[in-house]
Amino acid sequence: MVNIMPELKKLLLNPSAYNKRTMEDIKRYIYIYKDKFEINVLLNELDSEIVEKEGYNLVKNVTSYGDYLKYTSDYVIDAGSLKSYFRRSSKNTWVSIWHGIPYKKMFIDFDEKSLNDGLEYAESYDIMISMSPYYTETFLRNSMLYSGEVKEIGSAKIDKLFASEEEILLAVQ
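The structure assignment produced for this chain is given below.
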């Protein structure tokens, strides 16, 4: 029998740390995208290697299958846990959604090691998600020297700190 259904692209979600709130946030997006992607979620705290759920799988991180998914998924959405030594495939796209480096390191305990970590981090991703033009320029472009693709999605809390209401509305249009 010939399969007439197109093969779903593989999406791997890799939260930096598991907690109940993280999974609740992820479930909202799984519901939206479950018919468009084969979705796997990597978790550090899982009793078995794979737990099948409706519309997605939970996969234990730091297992051979977890590493396999990092290498074979079409898209890896990562919240800052990719190690720079992990060899990626040239066929997948790694997207960073983590915004913690500047807030944890910049201007507080910024030292040579933090700088090196930031530069390595910037080299590890194909696309960075940014919360604002200020974040993009100050942290991604100038501090981490990231020259790749940036998607600015905005954050209501952050945008209001750096722009007037009128500037925010103009940027959205």
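Interim note for the steering committee: The chain has a mean pLDDT of 79. Strands lie at 9-14, 37-43, 50-53, 56-60, 75-78, 93-96, 127-130, 149-152.
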